[in-house]
Structures are given as structure tokens and as C-alpha cells.
Amino acid sequence: MLYHGDAHPRSQPLPEGGLAVHESDVLLIGDIGGTKTDLLVISQAAGLAQPLARARLKSADYPNLQTLLGAFLATTGLSVRHACLDVAGPVINGRAQLTNLPWEVDGAALCAELAFTSVDILNDLAAIAHAIPTLQTTDLKTLNAGTASPGGTKAVIAPGTGLGEAFLVWDGARYLAQASEGGHVDFAAPTPELAGLAPYLRDRYDHVSYEMVCSGVGIPHLYDFFRDQGRALESPEFAAHLAASPDRTPPILEAALHSDTPNPLCRAAVEAFLTILAAEAGNLALKVFALGGVYIAGGIPPRLLSLIDRARFAHTFCAKGRFAKLLTEIPVHIVTNPDATLMGTAAYGWARMRHAPMSSSGP
Questions:
Q1: pLDDT digits (tens, 9 = 90+) for 144-191
Q2: Would you call 87 helix, strand, or coil by DSSP?
């Protein structure tokens, strides 16, 4: 566990030697994912730049979120009464069942078990969406410049362990974030080369969604597809390496990114992933009429920047028949700031503390 900051109950001196922070000015924020959980205790004065405590934990090492949070808070010695947590799954009335982890998250239960005054739960893609209006050009890598329409809807698509989708709408004064479960809609092949992918997976699974082919969960499916289609031979050494890996996605990505001799099956899987991502980003742009831009977030896309052909990506993004010209005008950015989700969670948490009744609830 990574931990920063001295442990003192109720108050904590800021790193620059400012005034002590009262517990009413302290917020626990967390990004609860299927693979990892990032936790920070932050003050209103210093924010994410200088957290009072920070940790990254393996989610699967804990039986539930209560145990994980309790273990983290015990190491800090800080008195924390307010929390805002984003989770990878749909949030309904302050409760969520995580999509890629057998945890049920309940804000009211967390309040009762860990003595919080308030716990807010929001979807992780809603959290990223809350961060979008605050991002700077240094937080983005532009794939298609386009021209954003003032007040236009903004779309967010984020391949991480799973595939998340969200959007923001302008209410005349500010952007409002809305989560979705669009990553679980039916997959459709964007190219003839991938036409056999859905039937291949349908023989193995009841439902073939975009998440199954455009996420950390999906990349091994792409690898298996190209291997079984005879795209290239799988070496016995690499097969053994994958078999010994608890998660096959990292070694596939590493082998695809190898600059001198990339593994051909791994490179094919990653190129297919990028093609599918571009196509689904275009689908999302049409569904929500994202004239304000499309933002590609999540942990995987920034790792693959060196493999993204901007012209090819834009071509696939815009390949929507009569609406191709419209899509050429929509900006497309990759969010490269690794703390974007936490930024959005913090923004939502502070807003709830300032303006909303203190209770456990979701958006």
C-alpha cells in the first residue's frame, strides 16, 4: 500500500505548514474498480494536489468495501466523516452491485459500519463526466480537432477493466453528468475482418456486448479469436506465459507494445480493440448527439497512444454513412490525466457537502 502523510486524529497540518484541517473540511474519495481501488483523504484547501493520505489497493484482496475502507482508514489515523466513492457499476438509490467484482456497495451501510456522517455513491463514468468540464489541454490528447458547439452534449467512453459510457448535457448554466450502461449493448462488427468475432464469442457466451471486446476483460477474447482463426502462430513460450498470468490483459498489451518485435497476435488484438473503440465512440456520439466532443477515458487508451493512427481512428469513428460529415466536426480527445476519475469524484463530493443534506445517497 502506498501511503503519504503523518497520521493524526481530527486534524492534520497541511504539507506547506498552513492551518490545521478540521474534520468538516476533510473528504474521503475513492475510485472503486474491479481490479484496483484508489483512495485519498483530501482537504478543501489542498485538494488532490496534496492529499493527507493516499493508497492504491487490490480490490480482490478484500471480501467487501467495508473491510477495505476500514483497513485504509486505520492506517491514516485521521478522523473522516464524509466520503464520496465512485464505483464500476450502476448506482440506484445509493446502492450498487459492482459489475466486475462480487461486491454490493451500500452508502447507508457504510455510514452505519464506519461511522461516517455521509457517504455518496456515484457511477465511475459519472465521476469522469463530472471531471470533463475542469480538464485542461494538458490533460488531453486530441485525435480529431473538430469544432465543439457551445453547450453541446459531451460523450465519455472509457475502456478499463470494463467499458463505461456516460454523457453531459448543458442546462443553461452548467453541465450535468449522466451515467449509462451503454457498454453492455449488443456488439456489431465494424469491419469485414471482425465479422466472425460475434459468432465466435456467441458460441462461448450468452451475450456479446461491446464490453466483451473493448475493455481489459475483452482484450483476451480478441487474442483468442485471432489465435483460433490462424492469424499467426502462438509460441509455446508465450502460451505458457499467458497461462501462468492471473490476468492475461497486461502481458498481451506489453507484447503488442514491444517496439522491436511485437507479438503478431497481441498486436492484432490491440489493433482490433482500437478499431472497435473508434467505431463505438462514433456510435455514442450519434446516440447522444455529442456536438460538444467525445472524451475517451479509462486506463487502457493512454497506454496505447504510440499505436494509435489518428487518420485511421478518425476514419473508423466517422464511418457512419450519411452522418460521416457531421462526425468529422466532432472533437475527439483521449483523457491522459490518470486522476480524472478522482477529480470528478472530489468535485461531486465537495458539491454534496456544501449544498446537499448530509445523508448517504447517490446522484
A1: 999 999 999 999 999 988 899 999 999 999 999 998 999 999 999 999
A2: strand
d(Cα 204, Cα 133) in Å, to the nearest integer?
Answer: 41
Q: Which residues of 243-257 are buried (b: 16+ CB within 10 A; e: fewer)?
A: eeeeebbebbbebbb
Q: Please state, in angstroms and rounded to a whole number, the distance separating the CA atoms of residues 213 and 224.
A: 11
Q: Which CATH superfamily is domain 12-123+341-355 in?
A: ATPase, nucleotide binding domain (3.30.420.40)
Could you tell me the residue ranges of all domains in the chain?
Answer: 12-123+341-355, 136-335
Q: Which residues pair with 141 in a beta bridge?
A: 334
Rounded CA-CA distance 312/57 in Å is 37
| Four-residue CA torsion sign, 251, 255, 257, 259 | positive
As a whole number of Å, the CA-based R_g of the chain is 21
Using a 10 angstrom Cβ sphere, with 0-12 exposed, 13-18 middle and 19 or more buried, the burial of residue 64 is middle
Contact 130, 177 (CB under 8 A): yes
Residues in a beta bridge with 142: 333
Class of domain 136-335: alpha beta
Closest CA to 116 of 63, 68, 52, 69: 69
Half-sphere exposure of 247 (CA within 13 A, CB side): 15
Separation between Cα atoms, residue 163 and residue 182, nearest integer Å:
8
Please check whether residue 297 is in contact with residue 284, taking contact to mean a CB–CB distance below 8 angstroms: no
User: What CA dihedral angle connects 263, 265, 270 and 271, to 10 degrees?
Assistant: 110
Tell me which residue has cell 483476451.
Answer: 220
Each residue's pLDDT tens digit, 26-58:
999 999 987 789 999 999 888 888 999 999 999
Whole-model pTM: value is: 0.85
Interaxial angle between packed helices 264-288 and 219-228, expressed in degrees from 0 to 180 and rounded to the nearest 10: 130
Contact between residue 66 and residue 75 where contact means Cβ atoms under 8 Å apart = no
pLDDT tens-place string over residues 321-341: 999 999 999 999 999 999 999
> If you write DSSP's letter for every residue of 275-336 in order, what string do you get?
HHHHHHHHHHHHHHT-TTEEEE-SSSGGGGGGG--HHHHHHHHH--GGGHHHHHTS-EEEE-
Cell of 311: 487518420
Closest by CA position to 54, among listed 7, 108, 117: 7
